[in-house]
Amino acid sequence: MLFSLTWSEVLLALHFTVVVACAVRVLYRQRNTGSAFAWLVILLAFPMVGVIAYLLVGETRIGRRRLARTSEMTQFYQNFASDYLTDEQHFSTDTQLPKSHQGIEKMVKKATGLGANQHNDMQLLTSTDDIINAMIDDIRQAKLSCLLAFYIIEPEGRIDALLQAVLDAAQRGVRCVILADAIGSGRFFRSQWHTKLQLAGVFVQSSLPISLLRTLYTRNDLRNHRKILVVDYYIGYTGSFNLIDPRYFKKDSGVGEWVDVMMRCTGAVVLEMAAVLYADIAVESEENLQLVQSYLLRYEQTDVAAIPTPTGNITTQVIPSAPEQDESIIYETILCAIHSATKRIVITTPYFVPNEPLLIALTTAARRGVDVTLILPEKVDSFMVRYASRAYFPLLLKHGIKIAQFNAGLLHAKTLVIDDDFSLFGTVNMDMRSFFLNLEISLAIYNRNMTEQIAALQQQYLADSRYIDEVDWLYRQKWWGLVENIVRLVSPLL
C-alpha cells in the first residue's frame, strides 16, 4: 500500500510530519506561553513558512563557541571585579538604599556581579546637538582611551565630525575601540570610515556578524542594542542615542526626526560600563578574548592610577543584559520596580509590546492607586509594532492608565520613573526583543534629584503629546481593532 501512494500524497504526509514535529518542539522548548502560542498560530496559518521561520529565529541560539567564551569571560570578569572594582577610592562599599530599593540592588548584583555605588555625577543631555557636541568635546580631550559601542553608526551629517574626532584621537596615541552591531551599522562597515579608522589604528569590531553558515548554529536576529561611550575610564555615556544625525536618518519613513536622550556620567559607574563593553568585544572571537584578558591583567598598573578620584554622590548601578544570561535581569528589574511603586509610574518608550506579567504589573499598580502614564510616539517605524501596541490600549485605558501619544517626532527615549527617588535609564524598549533577545544596558538610578530631572524631561514630552480618550478610542472603526488584535497574536515574537 505504501508504494501505491502518489507523490502528492507522500509530500502531504511529509509536510504534515514536519509541521507536527516543529509544533512539538515549540511546546517542548518555549517556556513562555505567549511565545509558544504565537508560534503555533504561525505554524497553523503558514505551515512551511512557519517551520522555516522557527528554525531560523524561533530559539535563542548563540553558538557553542560564543557561549564558551562568554562563560570564560564572565568568570574572568568576576575575578577581575573582586580584585579591582572594590577599592574605596572608586567604589562605595557602604551604600545605603531605602528598603524599597534594596531588593532590586541585591537581585541585580547577584545576577551581574555589579552592585550600586554612590561616587557618580550625572548630566542629562536632552537634545541631539547637546549630545553630539558633548561627545565630540570629550573625545577631543581624551588622553588615555576612547571606547565606543553602538547599535547604529550612520556616517553622515554631524556623525562624520564625531568619527573624525575618534580618528584624530587614535593618531595622537589614544587607545580607540569601536564595537558596532553588524546589522544596525551595516552602512558604517561598507563606508570609507571603516577603512580610514582602521588605518589610523582604531580597533573596529563587528558585533554579532551574520552569514548563511552561521544561520546553521546561531540565531541571526540577536542584536547588540547597547549604546556606550567611555573616555579615559572616567567619562561615560549611555542612553537611547545611536550615532545618527536625525536630520538625515530614515527621513523618508514618515515618523519625523528621532528624539533621543543620553546620560553623561563621571565616576565609578564608568568603569562598569567599560567592563561591559570589553566583555562584548571579548566574546566575538577567541583572539579577542585573549587580547582583552591580557589587557585587563595589566589594567591596574596602566590605567587605574590615571583615573581621577570620583567626587559625585549619585548612587547608580549598571544593569547589562544578554540572551546568554540565565536571568532576563533588566526585565525582572522593571517588574520589581513597578510592583514597588506607591505614587507614580511614568514610562517613555518607542516600542511598547508587553507580555502578560508586565500588563498585570501595570494594571494592578493603577488599581491600587498609583498614577501610571505611558508616553509613546504617535508614529513608529515598524508596522507590526504599531498595531500590536495599540491592541493593548483598551485594557490599559480601562484600568485608568493614561496613554499619551508624542507627536513631535519619533520619541526614542527609554525612561522609567518610579515615585520620587528611583528611575531606570538606558537602551531597553518595552518589548520582548529588548527583554529577552538583545544585548542591552540600563542604569538603575537611586537618587531623588536625578529622578526628578528625568521626570521633568518626561513632562516636556507630555507637552508635545496628546492623551488618548478611552471613549474615542473604543468607538473607532471596528476593523482597526480587528487588525490590531490579529497582529497581537504574534506580539510575543516582536
CATH topology name of the largest domain, in short, is Endonuclease, Chain A
Name the overall outline. Answer: globular
Strand count, sense and barrel status of the largest sheet are: 8 strands, mixed
What assembly state would you assign to the polypeptide chains in this entry?
Answer: single chain
Tally of DSSP helical segments: 20
- Helix share bin: 40-55%
Report the C-alpha radius of gyration, rounded: 23 Å
Structural class of the helix and strand makeup?
alpha/beta
Number of strands: 17
CATH architecture name of the largest domain: 2-Layer Sandwich
Distance between the termini: 46 Å
The number of distinct structural domains comes to 3
Strands of the widest sheet, in order across it, are 9-16-15-14-10-11-12-17
Task: State the fourth-level CATH superfamily of the largest domain.
Answer: Endonuclease Chain A
What's the CATH first level of the largest domain? Alpha Beta
Beta-strand level of the residues, as a percent range?
15-25%
Spans with pLDDT under 50 lasting ≥5 residues?
A: none
Mean pLDDT over the residues: 85
Main location: membrane
GO biological process, one term: cardiolipin biosynthetic process
Subcellular location: Cell membrane
Pfam family, one: PLDc_2
